[in-house]
Amino acid sequence: MPVGVNCIYCGGSTSGVRRGEHVIPEALGGTRTLRCVCGSCNGEFSVLDKELCSRSPLSIVVQQELGTESAMLWDYNEEYGIALEARILRGFLAPVLWPQLVLLGPKTLFLFDQEEAESVGLEDYAKAFYNLIQRSTEKWLTQSKGIIWERIRQPPIRGRFPPRFFSPHEYADWKRGMTFICRYLDPIEREQIVHAVRRWKPVIRRSTKATSLGVLDPEALLSFQQDLILRALVKIGLNLLAYVISPTDVNSTTFPSATKYARWGTTGMPNPENNGFVTDHTLSESHCPTDAHKFELVYSNQLWRLVAVFFGGRIGICVRFPGPQITEYVRYGIVAPVKSKDWTVEKSEVYLPSRPISTLWDDLSVMIPSMPIRYRGSEKRVEQRRLRK
Ligand SMILES: [Zn+2]
Q1: d(CA 268, ligand 1 centre) in Å
Q2: Which pTM does this prediction carry?
Q3: Average pLDDT for residues 173-178, to the nearest whole number?
């Protein structure tokens, strides 16, 4: 990249850029970067990446594939009729519980993943949890630190939601000073609840049905904004074009409305009715290799259509944005293996009319056919126009 190339989004200087903007977000295992995006645009795009990777339905797959935290996810305990803090592991459809103390009236339930606890030894596991939570509550009482209080605005559909203390860490990651989260629904008296936790003593009965592994309908709470998801995707589309073509040809002059849309979400918003998450049909037709993302950019009629399929075809999004053809090619196919720079790019001059792609925003069973999850819907707020200084 020659020195002095201007930012493809705002036209500003990129002279101070070191690492550059990830062509596809780092949170998705993206490794290749573009130096032709200025630090300021790069920084402002992080809110788009966050919405896409840790709040949208894609975040559920990210959590399962890469183990990072994302959407709130709950399991359901039949015995007590309560929703529990859980996470989804790779290769498992049923959610696995985080170790947690649930304050059920005068009763305090210690719930955890049986298999994890048994691998450590039930008593050692419970003792370690007990010590950590005692330290954390002590710290809160003396320094008002060590507990994160999270009031949940939308409870799960299934089960009651009594206050619970948990830490989203597996045993291997437990350490002194670990912070606990207290999630609750109704207003609570913090002092009282902390004292209830301090009174708790682990009693391990081997016959206890502490876990409810095998529940096949975990529920996810997703609250995301469609327009931010679409902007994130248009940005990925422009990044990919700048990567496969040339940043001197892909910029705010050649793609005026798409670059503005990525930056501000004001002009040229793709219609959420026919842009969005793709259905299981498109996913199976994508033939995306395992452990890779696949992107198809097709030009037709002043529009680029990006179909982005993630993690071996487990979930995908389609978005269209205006712009010129630029080269002789009308189709680019990019395969980007997760956490690898070993990308392949396929180009074609032939326009092949493809079947229309249907999109949707609110049926996880069609969006993520590999994982049955209940779903709470999305916020359909459109961002306020941000004024330029
Ligand atoms: Zn810029």
Answers
A1: 19
A2: 0.80
A3: 91
> What single-letter DSSP state applies at residue 214?
T
Q: How far is the CA of 14 from the centre of ligand 1 (A)?
A: 8
Q: Ligand 1 centre from 315 Cα, in Å? A: 30
For ligand 1, the distance from its centroid to the CA atom of residue 300, given in whole angstroms, is 27
CA of 320 to the centre of ligand 1 (A): 22
- pLDDT, position 300: 93
* Angle in degrees, CA 24, 50, 320, rounded to 5: 55
* Sheet strands (E) in the chain: 21-22, 33-34, 72-77, 82-87, 96-97, 100-104, 107-111, 147-151, 164-166, 180-184, 219-221, 276-278, 292-300, 303-310, 315-322, 331-337, 344-348, 359-360, 374-375
Residue 249 CA, ligand 1 centroid: distance in Å: 15
Q: Average pLDDT, stretch 357-381?
A: 80
**CA of residue 226 to ligand 1 center, whole Å:** 23
Q: How far apart are CA 86 and CA 97, in angstroms?
A: 4
Tell me how far the alpha carbon of residue 12 lies from the centroid of ligand 1, in angstroms. 5
Dist CA 90 CA 198 (whole Å): 34
Helices 226-244 & 256-264 angle (0-180, nearest 10): 130
Cα 26 from Cα 338, distance rounded (Å):
10
Dump pLDDT digits (tens) for 105-156.
Answer: 888 999 888 888 889 998 899 999 999 999 999 999 999 998 999 998 878 8
Tokens of 91: 């290769």
Distance 21 CA to ligand 1 centre (A): 10
Distance CA 127, CA 186 (A): 30
SS3 6: strand
Give CA torsion, residues 168, 174, 179, 185, to 10 deg.
30
Q: How far is the CA of 252 from the centre of ligand 1 (A)?
A: 9
> End-to-end alpha-carbon separation of the chain, Å?
30
CA of 323 to the centre of ligand 1 (A): 18
